[in-house]
Amino acid sequence: MIVSFTWVLGGALILVLLTIFLWSARNKQKKPVPRHVPIAVKEEYAEELAIPVVFPPQPAAKPEMPVIPWYYGKDRMTLMVRDPNWIFAYWEISAAKQNEFSNQYGHDAWNNSLSILRVYDITGVEDFNGTNANDFTDISIHDTVDSWHIDVARPNSSFCVDLGRLFPDGTFITLLRSNIVKTPSMDVSNLLDEEWMWIEDIYRTLNRTYLGSSPTIPKEFGRGMGLISVGMSSPGLGNRKN
Q: Which of 79, 112, 178, 227 is the most buried (most CB within 10 A)?
């Protein structure tokens, strides 16, 4: 009996201890975290995890440049002077002008004629009308040409140029006529510089430049540059005596 009672008592004690242990463990798992205890939480954002991408700077947009047309659809011819021996002509002939020529002289007239530059020497001619030139020279050109350098070899002379069509029988039809130009002379100009009145500001500048020098030096320097006139009169009257 004593042995049985001891086993029963021991088993009961073990059961009580096991119950207490399980109850403590359960309460320990449910025990809330005190508010005063800080919780270390590390938050990671997408911006920190992404790899930065650096884009190269984009060049500034260039402003659109206006497009210069090759043709303007206008019938015109311009003559310019290049030097005493050469002149330069450029022109534009429209399709309407070609159709007008074909309608007047025949459907095949354009193909049966040559494109010609007729260069007139009109030196001394006051009112040029196409028939009163001193002489003229014909230059055969291709139909697709729209400019030409012309070797006139006549300094100090006046010229006018016609663009036209030359038929096999020698008939010349003018399509465009240029302006009149005059080539410069090959000789040294006989025009002399005018005598100008003295400018006080230049005189002061020369005085500052030659400070400490003889007062005649600025005057001689200015006269050599053409800045000081011979006299204090109007141009051309400096040497006149009363």
A: 178
What is the SS3 string spanning 85-125? CEEEEEEECCHHHHHHHHHHHCCCCCCCCEEEEEEEECCCC
Same domain, 157 and 87: yes
What is the distance between the alpha carbons of residues 72 and 146, in angstroms, rounded to a whole number? 13
Q: Are residues 86 and 142 in the same domain?
A: yes
Tokens representing 153 are: 């070899």
- The residues that bridge with 88 in the sheet, in sequence order, are 80, 149
- How far, CA to CA in Å, does 5 sit from each of 12, 16, 133? 11, 16, 160
Domain extent, residue 216, equals: 194-242
- CA 138/CA 10 separation, integer angstroms: 145
Selection from 90, 89, 114 nearest residue 164 by Cα: 114
pLDDT in tens, 123-179: 999 999 999 999 999 999 999 999 999 999 999 999 999 999 999 999 999 999 999
Q: Which two tokens stand for residue 221?
A: 């320097």
Conformational region of residue 236, where left means phi above 0, alpha means psi within -120 to 50, and beta covers everything else: left
| DSSP letters spanning 125-148 | -SS--SS--SEEEEEEE-TT--EE
User: Residue 233 falls within a domain, yes or no?
Assistant: yes
